[in-house]
Amino acid sequence: MRRISEHSPRKSNKRRRSSLEDRVFLNRQKCYKSENPVVSSSGEFDFLDYKRDINKIFAYSRDTNTVTNNLDDFWVFVNKYQATLRKAGKPVICIENEDRTTNDLGIPSNFSKFNCINFSTNIKFMDSVCDEKGRKKLTKSIFDALLNVVSIYLDFKNKEKLEKLKKLRQTQRDLPVAKYREEIQAAVKNERVIIVAGDTGCGKSTQVPQYLHDAGFQNIACTQPRRIACVSLSKRVAFETLTQFESKVGYQIRFEKSKSADTKICFITEGLLLRQMSSENLPNYDVIILDEIHERHLMGDFLLGVLKCLIHTRNDIKLVLMSATINIKLFEDYFAAEAAVVIQVPGRLYPIDLHYKPIYIEDKPTRDDRLDPQPYVQIMQLIDSKYPSDERGDLLIFMSGVQEITSICDAAQQYAEKTKKWIVLPLHSGLSLNEQDKVFDYPPEGVRKCIVSTNIAETSVTIDGIRFVVDSGKVKEMSYDSSTKMQRLKEFWISKASADQRKGRAGRTGPGVCYRIYSEQQYTDMEAFSTPEVSRVPLASLLLLMSSLGVNDVRRFPFLDTPPEDAIENALLELKQHAALSSNEKLTSLGKALANLPVEVALAKALVIGSATLPPHKRDSALALTAALGIRSIFTTRAHRDFECENARKPDESDHGDPLTLLSLYCAWLTVKAEGRGGRDWCRRRGIEEQRFYELTKLAAQLRGLLQDNNLMETVEPESMSSAERAMRHGQMKQLKDMRRQYKQKAAEESKRKKRLKVDSWEIVDDKAEDDNVLDIRDIEFRMTNDAQRIRALISGSSASSGRDLIMLKIVLCRALYPQVAIADEFNHCKSVSDQLYHTYSKPFVFLHPTSYFGKNGRILQLTEGDIQTDTPPGYKSKLPLSARHQLLCYLSLLETTKPYIVNSMRMPAAQTLLLLSHSIDTNSGFTRLVCDSWLLLEFPYPETGLNLLLKAIKLRRRWDTLINRRLLDANPIKSVETELEKTKMSRKSSYGELQHDLSCDISSYMNSDVYYTIKRLLPGDLKVLYYGADEAHATIDPNPFEEGFECRAHEKKGGIYVTDNVVYNCVVDADWSYNSYQELYGIPWTCPDCDISLCLSPLERLQHKHFMCSSRTEEKKVDVKTTPRENKPNAKEYKCENCNEVLYMTPVEILKHRKTCKSKK
Amino acid sequence: MRLPQEMDDPNKSVEEKELVYDFNCVSCNLNEKAHYKGTKPPFSRNIILKYPSYVMKDPFSPPGKGEVLMLGADCAICDKPVCISKECSIFYMKLFCINCAKQSLEKFPVEIQSKINSNKK
Fold this sequence. Notes:
The complex is a heterodimer of chains A (1162) and B (121). Chain A contains 41 helices and 33 strands. Chain A is α/β, with parallel strands linked by helices. Chain B is mainly beta. Chain A binds chain B through residues 61, 63-66, 68-69, 102-111, 115-123, 154, 158-159, 161-166, 169, 242-246, 261-262, and chain B through 11, 28, 30, 32, 44-51, 53, 58-71, 73, 76-77, 83-85, 91-95, 104, 107-112. Chain B: This is Cysteine-rich DPF motif domain-containing protein 1. Chain B: InterPro entries: CDPF1 (IPR042426), CDPF1_dom (IPR018785). Chain B: Pfam families: C6_DPF.
């Protein structure tokens, strides 16, 4: 406003004041009749001279209205109004005519422009004291004159708003779907299932929910496959229903919701609606709309099946399916029993000129398979020569993957530099959000955008102004091999449906052209539709969710497309291995807990185990770690190419592997945040997409909430703040809210302005400078939800860089991921880092991913000279290195691109991990050869070392299981007398805290135990001669020193007997060395160090002696001895051995065994 | 059509119950819900309308700011609701739908007559 008052002739006005007022009054009488200017041009009257007084009156009136809300705008209006009048030679002040005679219509027969205005105001005039010399006094008459201008302003603003409203209604009416409004409403009222098929742009997503609401439906859920669509649709529909400031239209997504009791239309992600179904209280929806079902996402497909079942039990729910016009028949047939009604809405598509431009083999300059960018550049040349550059229209090129995009971009960029007619922009999901947004900006006049994209631009991202489409016909798609649990990223020909979708992108804003870089024959040969996700992805999470939803037999679930049988079987097996399902495929309490967590099964398990095992102040580490592995990669494509980025990350890398590096980077970022140093720049220097860290924080918070809701984690009261801290936080919040408001205003302004691209914008952009002044909305929101104290707590809770915390966190994650472990190839020591081979249980010969920590630092996994024990025990010979430092890799996933790779791996001490986590451990009688999961053979040549380690592992495993089961039991209390008793018994024993502490102390000392062993991967040939095989004459072991009270049973195939659920004793055949060492060690009498008894006993018997019979056992333990072994075994009796003259208390079988050993010793 | 209907929102207390008018312009079919009909809209105390009109709380502004959107009024001659856009009506102390205004053309001041005539509808 300053600008305007500068123009007002304030200084020279003093003398003119009285005369001006006279003229005003003069004007009152004659203004209307004579149109002469009242104030001569020499001494113009100006309302702005009275601005201060007038504003004062407005402020005093204590009312808000259009004028007071937009005071600045109002004064601009006043100024323009005056200027217009002056230009037309009319007086600025014009007082209404007093003549009130009216005709038979009740209107004055004389014209007054004020009579054309319906608005008037009743703001009261106030006489203000004019204390300042030289300022003009505001009189009532001037104020009244101003009120007339106010009325005109109100009227003007009102018309603007009405126009906006009418324009909105017009746009709605013009949508193709609008013609089907009544038809859709009637169909939904009368039928159960309705399919609305219409192509992008027909308006179904925004309009159909409104139509249904208008038709009287009160609780409408509308699903979307993407979170972002939920938010933007809910905003748009709220605007269209004129309720943007109410909560009638809301959304609900993974991290947030804007929904209240008033919400009538709710946009929700597919996954979330499914989870609502699994909780008993499904909101009382009367219509469920499933949008974009043609995309065939896993969740969407599954939701269709669930709803197909649901509408049979819930007569009050209507189902509306919305799809593009792809494969409508499939959905119609699927809902044939429910008599689905199909309503087809034609889209708005302009004609598209189609050209096939295949590359023939002989045209290829080189023999290899490498992509030749020339055909693509030639099309750019063609467009330049054929279409004048003043005709607008951009080019969209579909390529299969990032590499292909890069090579096309490079070639296109060279061409663009010559012609200066193109701006080349890549588009794929690996780009940062800022880079992605560039494709929506506008090129300068005479320049076209050339967007080189993956299939992300096929349906997910819609770019306006595309006139030319080039389709490579290829797509890179993830497939999944359920037997090896490996994902594969491979290039395929697209489907006809995809090809048509790509073509259609050229005809959205006007007639277009599509070039296909393949032959018409190729098109004919394409599959009709793309493979749905359900046949390409891991199914374990889905099947677990199904089980928790009460699907009894997942094999008989009515899938839209039934996934391959072995994919289901392998997923079920995986769930059983994770103990989420029992052996008869019933949901376990662990499974129930896992199903509630929206991350993949193994990660959910890490959370549940973590919350049971880790002390409360360290649970954030498990949450952060899980969340870090549960989100997309935090690294941008630059992260692994740019040497600077790699160097900048170095200090925060953990030599334990990728998961801990992620955690450590996150903690470092949190520290930057806590110090208020922004973070965006920090991330950019390290090649990290900061957005991912915000997502990580949100996911971790959400997971914490879910664990707490399910009683799997205690709610920790935040430390109370001192009043000073509270006041500071209050001030900070106020400031942050201010900043957020500023940002939103700015963003709103910016969105109105078109963003211009520069011709050379594809070059490395140095946007540092502009970024620094820009408010970072995510930073603001992060600071609003996380105060300094919270961030500090997160840092201390999430960091696990050393000691027991680190060991516990690693073993928790490893237990959750098991059996996903890999062992190094025995010849790795003589190969370069990139050729290092690893073997997993299901997939031999895999490589370390070049971007992973060990992919760059492979040596750390190898044994050094010093690690290898050369001084082997006598009689022991092996080619394999004997060491206490063997390591395993525990990994999150396998991915095959050019080679099969291990992704996200972490190193673990081998024997300790295997003995603690293996599902089955087989041993020989001397406990020198242990076989884990029939895959890895560990040999412990030093006597007793294998047995001791195994014994420790078994005990720790049991204690750990007890702890986890107790946590699960507390989470799902079954109200029965027994469990109550059990609980009171347990709680009497010791508190969680103590148990956790003791266990973590013992586990960490166990993991650090120094034991020499060799490790070998067993091949099918080895397995054939590894076991004794079934033998009915096997003795039972009683008392059982491994697990008291465990009833031993023979293994049907391997031979030997189970001594715990996981350990089979005496089924592994001995090697020469182990046989000899057994004979040497156990063939001679053994003297118990405690009771000095001397006997010839096998290692197992020695154990039994120590545990149950040794006389040195203290008095109180004798009670145990009395109660357990003797009572349990009625057939035990006293026995006096003739050989060794010992009196033993044994069962007949044991007596036989004893005799045998005693004899053999002789 | 013009009878006020009560919003059946059980959450609102009796005093808060709003009257809703179904406003439907005879000329352009604009169909909106008005919150008030009269000359003194209660949601903006300083605004007075010369002719009783249909008013809604401005849907494009946050609530509580006193912003209103006057949609139209019942025509002073035929008593049918009409919106204020210049294609549909003319205002001169009262609101007239364009049809009635054309029929009573000579009763308006000449300035208004030319405005009415300039409307091609």
